[in-house]
Write a structure and sequence with these properties.
Layout lengths: L3 H14 L6 H7 L3 H5 L9 H22 L5 H11 L2 H10 L10 H5 L6 H18 L2 H20 L7 H13 L4 E8 L6 E8 L2 E8 L2 H16 L2 H4 L3
Antiparallel strand pairs: 1-2, 2-3
Helix pairs in contact: 2-8, 4-5, 4-8, 4-9, 5-9, 6-8, 8-9, 10-11
Subunit structure: Homodimer.
Keywords: Cytoplasm, Endonuclease, Hydrolase, Magnesium, Metal-binding, mRNA processing, Nuclease, RNA-binding, rRNA processing, rRNA-binding, tRNA processing
Catalytic activity: Endonucleolytic cleavage to 5'-phosphomonoester
Length: 241
Amino acid sequence: MLSKERIDELAQLQINLGYTFKDILLLNKALTHKSYVNEKSEAIKNNERFEFMGDSVLDVVVSHYMVKTFQDFSEGLLSKIRAAVVNEACLAGLARDICLGDYLLLGRGEDLTGGRDKNSILANAFEAVAGAVYFDSNLETAYDVFLPRLKKEIAQYAKTSRFRDFKSELQHFSQNTLNCIPFYKVVKETGPDHEKQFEVVVRTNGEEQGRGAGRSKKEAEQAAARSALEHLNPEFKENGG
């Protein structure tokens, strides 16, 4: 059983999280680090099993939202964005947003060496809390609790060009909307061999849809594909184009 002081303490965390546990022991377990368990003589479970479950829960939440929202994103792009969103640094930041470190049960040594603000501990604890919410309720509830916190991160990475494969997006859009595939052609090359600049045109059904330039044919094709998507797909900019 938890002390009244601990229950009162966890009440604030539940407010921060936006979810009230039916079984408060699940939340407490999610906050119990292995360093704390190692210093106790009684049998106490740490949060690692919840962390394992929570990792899967957050993956499903992010994947479900992205598949519904970014319908022209390739599987590879979706995987890259998901990996960026559920990585250690991102989850640690989300944990700090709800002051999760203040509620962790840590061993004395870990506490004294700044464990409450370590990315690895915070990220793992955030996953464990996600697992605890799932076990206390269901996946739909976990989705409602965690998606609002994850959406901002998803949008940020979705807008980052280095994650985008515009050629794949354009091909997917063209096949599904125009019943054709894009055709790319280099129309101009300038500069010396060590500083070449390429200009590429992309066409669908014989009509020019976009142009792009770059230091390589691949870079120019990506720029042309992006230009075409801006021209052809009204939802492109809404989805972070």
